[in-house]
Specification:
The protein is mostly helical. It is 51% helix and 0% strand. It has four helices and no strands. InterPro entries: ABC1_dom, Kinase-like_dom_sf, Mito_struct-func_regulator.
């Protein structure tokens, strides 16, 4: 159990995953509606993750924000997935 917790909280792993996701999004959709912050690699360690600040809507509030703007999330996701 302790190994799993340590594995989950290794921010170098998180940084690598962020870079893979960022690369995938921008290679497959030049104007991705999802922004992934750029890492500041010189400051990333197992215990510290430093990235650029991007002002936006927290992902946990995304459903409410889409509804407030009258956007059908199924339609947007389906359209983005086809690109």
């Amino acid at each position: 159990m302790l190994f799993k917790i340590g594995y989950e909280f290794d921010f170098t792993r998180e940084a690598n995953a962020m870079e893979r996701i960022r690369h995938f999004l921008y290679e497959n959709n030049k104007k991705s509606p999802v922004l992934v912050p750029r890492l500041i690699r010189d400051f990333v360690t197992r215990r510290v993750l430093v990235m650029e600040y991007i002002d936006g809507i927290p992902i946990l509030n995304l459903g409410d924000e889409l509804a407030k703007r009258g956007i059908n999330p199924a339609g947007k996701m389906a359209a983005a997935a086809k690109q």
